[in-house]
Amino acid sequence: MKTLMLGNEAVARGLYEAGCCFVSSYPGTPSTEITECAAEYEELYAEWAPNEKVALEAAFGASLAGKRSFCGMKHVGLNVAADPLFTISYTGVNAGLLIGVADDAGMHSSQNEQDSRHYARAAKLPMLEPSDAAEALQFAKLGYELSEQFDTAVLLKMCTRVSHSQSVVEPGERVLPERKRYKKDPARYIMMPGNAKKRHPVVEARTRALAAWAETADINRVEPGEDPSCGIITSSTCYQYVKEAFQDTYPVLKLGMIWPMPEQKIKDFAASVQRLVVVEELDRFIEAYCRSLGLSVSGKDLFSEIGELSQNVVREKLGAAVPTGVCLDETIPARPPVMCAGCPHRSLYYVLKKLKLTVLGDIGCYTLGAVAPLNAVDTTICMGASVSGLHGFVKVGEEETAGRTVAVIGDSTFIHSGVTGLINIAYNGSDATVIILDNSITGMTGHQQNPTTGYNLKGDPCTKIDLESLCRAVGIRRVRVVDPYDMETCQTVIKEELSAKEPSVIISRRPCALLKYVKHPGPIHSDPEKCRGCKACMNIGCPAISMAGGKAKIDGTLCVGCGVCQQLCKFDALG
Questions:
Q1: By the number of CB atoms within 10 A of the CB, which of 55, 368, 373, 473 ranks highest?
Q2: Average pLDDT over the chain, rounded to an integer
Q3: CA torsion 10→15→19→22, rounded to 10°?
Q4: DSSP element (H, E) containing 135
Q5: By C-alpha distance, which of 269, 352, 318 is closest to 539?
Q6: Is the model's pLDDT at 330 over the cut of 80?
Q7: Which of 376, 377, 373, 382 is closest to 336 using CA atoms?
Q8: What is the mean pLDDT of residues 545-569?
Q9: Long-range pairs for 449-452: beta carbons < 8 A, 24 or more residues apart
Q10: CB neighbours (10 Å) of residue 350?
Q11: Which residues pair with 98 in a beta bridge?
């Protein structure tokens, strides 16, 4: 029975139907829902791993044991998983191994625009690229067939538009393949130089075999057009833009396998049209391949290497009329991202700003401490970089920076890749102060559990990492816990730890205000008679507070009663 599915939901359905048994991922938008949806199938074991490297290694282990497995992540997560990725290309697999990666062109929720197609070519692994939910399901199943046929892990590349848009899907039945028994094979699985040298020719032969398969594969198809003056090569969501813009006007070569590409099919298609155009987002990946074949092709001379494309951009750049849109008479005011009302990070950042500290930040919703009016974060690079960067900053810092710099990192991010930076601080001895913002959840990607929460992906109780004990175990003797709602205590503790002549950790612990189990006292009320209009309460940037008629106004539908604003008001106007 046909139904509507998100692209990510369809991938999960494909895993189910293909007989996948093991799923290990780390949440990252826009990939998160694949694993969350997979966890809803009882036949699949699904877990959140501490990071993407661990997730891929676990998925490879399940494949080695003879069960089809999956590992999912966003594009920057593939950077973390790159270490095992490149070596798994050499070893091959036992049972099928599918690796899902979701790119974020347009940087809707990411720190960079990264084109994961380069990983497929660099690691010499096949990559499938669906253009809608139906193909997401189909390609997930196909990925396992290719994985076992060609003895390779297979990359499934999603993107924000395909992951988070719905289209019609026709679900099928689950088919569980016979388990592939593990057989010892040291020459294949022990990647020391002598063995690896023998595996490299195998990888190159496999790539040639996959390229030959791509020549006749149905997922690489030519769709005829009425006007051969222009032929378009495209894939993924750009295929949808091209078809919506031109329907059957121009011939289209749609690539479902983006690596390796079908050389002869591309050459034959180019010979059948007068002008060859590549429509792709971000880098000139297909275009560069076409040029390597000696073809004359247009691509990034027309389309930007920055951001997403659209139907109208495709129309405009290829000389077609662009439909006239409807413009609003009024300018819509900007709505910058902001931390939620009652967010425990807000008050902590207020203290850091008040102390005029240099703050090395990390990846999470607490990155919003960088925006006005708090403006409390100086850097944000990647997962764990705040802690590692703090060590270097403190080690070479001048006198004016001594005792004036901290790192902030969330509990999930700390487990992901912050703990190794803390080990480095303890081992190499810098007087660094790390603040772990423990909101008891993985907040930014939608409240996923992590090893510090005491619950697994399915909500079952599990081992809970004790952050205080962990920090002490790696060599940090000074570990303090504070409630971020108590700003006076926070300020005192931060000053004390910054003055200490040894490494220290402050754990700012208060659950995310949006968690269902968190009980709030109820909204605070403003007294216009007592309010002097000083706007001190506005300095924390809480969305529940505004000014009306020169007086502070509390939105009772947003306010949770955290009491932080009350600590700023000197006139008892908030109660």
A1: 55
A2: 95
A3: -150
A4: helix 133-150
A5: 352
A6: no
A7: 373
A8: 94
A9: 449/48, 450/48, 450/50, 450/411, 450/412, 450/415, 451/50, 451/415, 452/411, 452/412, 452/414, 452/415
A10: 24
A11: 70, 154
| Top-confidence residue, 251 or 327 | 251
Cα–Cα distance, 286 to 57 (Å, whole number): 30
Q: Which residues contact 473 (CB under 8 A, 6 or more apart)?
A: none
Backbone angles phi, psi at 189, to 5 degrees: -105, -10
User: 97 has which bridge partners?
Assistant: 69
Query: Rounded distance, CA 491 to CA 482, Å?
Result: 10
pLDDT tens digits along 390-441: 999 999 986 667 789 999 999 999 999 999 999 999 999 999 999 999 999 9
Q: Are 101 and 77 in contact (CB under 8 A)?
A: yes
Name the burial class of residue 572, with classes exposed (0-12), middle (13-18) and buried (19+) by CB atoms within 10 angstroms of its CB: exposed
Measure the CA–CA gap between 309 and 301, rounded to whole angstroms: 14
pTM as predicted: 0.94
CA dist 526 and 542 (Å) reads 14
Distances from the Cα of 26 to the Cαs of 36, 53, 172, 356, 533, in angstroms? 11, 9, 27, 34, 46
Q: Which two tokens stand for residue 321?
A: 């009329």
Cβ atoms of 27 and 48 closer than 8 Å: yes
- The DSSP output letter for 263 is H
234 HSE (CA, 13 A, CB side): 24
Q: How far apart are CA 98 and CA 127, in angstroms?
A: 10
Tens of pLDDT, residues 176-191: 999 999 999 999 999 9
Beta bridge partners of 437: 410, 508
Query: β-strand 127-128 against 257-259: which pairing, if any?
Result: antiparallel
Closest CA to 284 of 131, 118, 154: 118
Strands 220-223 and 252-255: antiparallel
- Which among 311, 308, 165, 309 has a CA at the least distance from the CA of 246? 311
Q: What is the DSSP letter of 183?
A: -
Span 508-538, pLDDT tens digits: 999 999 999 999 998 999 999 999 999 999 9
* Structure-token pair, residue 70: 């999956």
Beta bridge partners of residue 24, listed in sequence order: 47
* Residues in the chain, overall count: 575
Rounded distance between C-alpha atoms, residue 69 and residue 59, angstroms: 5
* Residue 107, pLDDT above cutoff 80: yes
User: pLDDT tens, 26-75?
Assistant: 999 999 999 999 999 999 999 999 999 999 999 999 999 999 999 999 99
- 548 beta partners: 551
